[in-house]
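Contributing new records

If you add data, match the layout below exactly. Sequence lines come first and carry their own label; structure lines follow with theirs. Keep one chain per record. Anything else will be rejected by the validation script.
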Amino acid sequence: MADCIEKRIELKAPIARVWRALTDHREFGAWFRVNIETPFQAGKPAHGQITHPGYEHVRWEAVVQRMEKERLFSFTWHPYAVDAKVNYADETPTLVEFKLEALPGGTLLVLTECGFDKVPAHRRLEAFRKNEGGWEQQMKNIEVHVAQAK
């Protein structure tokens, strides 16, 4: 099994627009389907309630790592941490990175999530599979979001 997920998409939106969709907590929440409670800040945790049907019982938690304007946004989190009865705090989180590159007529967005080798063995494969499919959908979600909302 691979340790990283990678997704690439060319968005028909300027890099500043894509940056805002990633780093404004309200915009991120709109396409990611989570109500995030506070603005993103490097080094600070971010919390919210997932709004995606079937996962409304799940609290979204991440720690923002880096915010390099119009270049890199990253956070750590516990992948597929959806069981309210489980305390994931002792697990090593994965690192999610969104890298942006300007293209003629748009922006290349490259998403990576790495660190699955540190996820406990009993849930590693399921977490990888669920996030692989989840990121596939989220790339479509941000594409629609940046095309519609200015």
